[in-house]
Design goal:
This protein is mostly helical. 77% of the residues lie in helices and 0% in strands. The protein contains 12 helices and no strands. α1 packs antiparallel against α9 (211-237), α5 packs antiparallel against α10 (240-247) and α10 (240-247) runs antiparallel to α12 (268-288).
Length: 304
């Protein structure tokens, strides 16, 4: 499957996961959802590796640490911002990760003389963000400035994490290994945050389980793990900014879920934003198609 198709499939799964996270938040704190989601990912990926006779040992532990640190922090801060801000604002700040990615790559080209970034790809990313703003139309009250800044930092850290995923792919790390170490970091971070909140008296600790809660946690873990595997492979194979533009399709999927499950109306502005989002993804793919073949998929180095 091509990198573009992998990204589209991953964004659909992430949107599906978002619905489950919203429902699961009625039963658990955000840090608990991060911990359980990640624990399911660790178990799935470890089981897959054992079944296929593949090794989880890595030759680039520091790269995995950097990716996991940025990714887990971004996820935790994003969950916090969702709890403190209107959902539309938190989602918009999250999708600024693609804009930050373009900024980082442009700065890299200017300061370190790395490969130049094509203006068409940057334009596609910015066009997609305009579409996101039209769909979500975020608002930010005066007393939500600090939470908004936290959401902004979450988007920036997400951009760093995605670029580090691409670097791990170029280093030859298979996607299952990248997802395993990221999930392991999520388990540790979720447990530490929950313990810290308990010490501060901000939570009563781990919540009890119900059949509905367990089903939602399982769905979150399965959807997230599958989506992460697809997205990691896509960033290892394809172009970072093409993938970033295509990720905006997650908003289209989310709006569809809002219509289907929550009965939210779609007006002309929302339709226009969705059209821009789709145009950004198609435009980015068109700009890159035929110019330069995608990098070869990362090879599994677990065997001699």
């Amino acid at each position: 499957m091509s990198a573009s198709l992998l990204i589209v499939a991953a964004t659909f799964l992430f949107a599906s996961m978002g619905v489950c996270v919203k429902l699961a938040s009625r039963h658990y704190d955000a840090s608990e959802i991060v911990m359980y989601r990640s624990l399911i990912g660790v178990l799935i990926v470890a089981g897959m590796a054992a079944f296929q006779g593949k090794s989880l040992r890595t030759q680039v532990p520091l790269k995995h640490f950097g990716r996991s640190l940025a990714g887990v922090l971004a996820l935790s801060l994003w969950f916090y911002s969702i709890g403190q801000l209107p959902l539309s604002t938190a989602m918009t700040l999250s999708y600024m990760s693609s804009v930050w990615m373009a900024v980082f790559m442009i700065l890299g080209a200017l300061l370190f003389k790395t490969a130049p970034v094509r203006p068409r790809l940057v334009a596609a990313v910015l066009l997609g963000f305009v579409g996101v703003a039209l769909v979500l139309r975020p608002t930010l009250a005066q007393d939500q400035i600090s939470a908004g800044l936290i959401g902004l930092v979450a988007g920036m850290l997400s951009a760093l994490a995605y670029l580090q995923v691409a670097g791990l792919g170029r280093a030859g790390e298979p996607e299952y290994r990248v997802v395993f170490y990221f999930s392991l970091g999520g388990v540790l971070a979720g447990a530490l945050i929950t313990a810290g909140l308990l010490q501060l008296g901000l939570t009563q600790g781990l919540h009890g389980h119900s059949p509905e809660g367990l089903a939602l946690l399982l769905a979150v873990g399965l959807l997230a793990t599958a989506a992460q595997l697809m997205m990691t492979r896509a960033y290892g194979r394809g172009k970072a900014l093409v993938n970033a533009a295509l990720q905006y399709l997650g908003i289209v999927f989310s709006v569809g879920y809002a219509l289907l499950f929550f009965g939210e109306a779609v007006d002309a502005g929302t339709l226009a934003g969705m059209a821009l989002i789709v145009a950004a993804g198609v435009g980015a793919s068109w700009a890159q198609a035929g110019r330069q073949s995608p990098a070869s998929p990362p090879q599994d180095q677990s065997r001699p």
